[in-house]
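This part of the workshop introduces the protein records we will be handling. As an example, a complete record with its sequence and its structure tokens follows.
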Amino acid sequence: MKSTSTDRSQNRVHTLVIKTLTCLGALSLSSCSTLVGNVKPMDEKSNHYDIVDLAQLNPGTWSKLPPESVAPSNSSGIDQESDAFSSEHSDVVFQSKRTQAIISLNTACRRGQSTPVKNLPGVARELTLGFREVEFQDDQWTQVNKTPAYSRTIQGKLESEWTRVQVIVLTWKDCVYDMTYISNPKQFSLHEADFAQFVGSLRISQ
């Protein structure tokens, strides 16, 4: 059975899969396997954007991780052959030296297959699969530099660890951009301003 274009556009990016969220309370991510905002091998990355480098802006707080060091996992049990499973790394990943929180950007492009703005809630939903015992969720339309975007913040259990995630997704031409902030709920507020600055710094070239 073939997927519809809507199914492909909603699934083509992105499933947020977090395997070992105890990393957020650990001293290092080196022993952890975390995948944030990933894209399928059939997707292409965008080279038409600029975004702030948090590690250069605030080196005392943020370190930049090599994207390939953020290893894929499939802890949510998604069929690896389905459109919803992703196995590539994110474009940019930063880790907090204070809290081990993660801020990342992922892009996914398919030539000639643009994602309608109305499908962004579905993309955000795909990115936040796997939560159990959800105790907070906020969904709203927003803008990133005058471009329509969709924001979802969700708090619950992933891999038995309480976790709070905010994802902001937008589409431009044939690419989808998602920016993600993952943190321990008790420490989430510490880097909200950093994430807002990160999101606000995104500039996509025409």
The domain at 5-204 is CATH 3.40.1000.10 (Protein Transport Mog1p; Chain A).
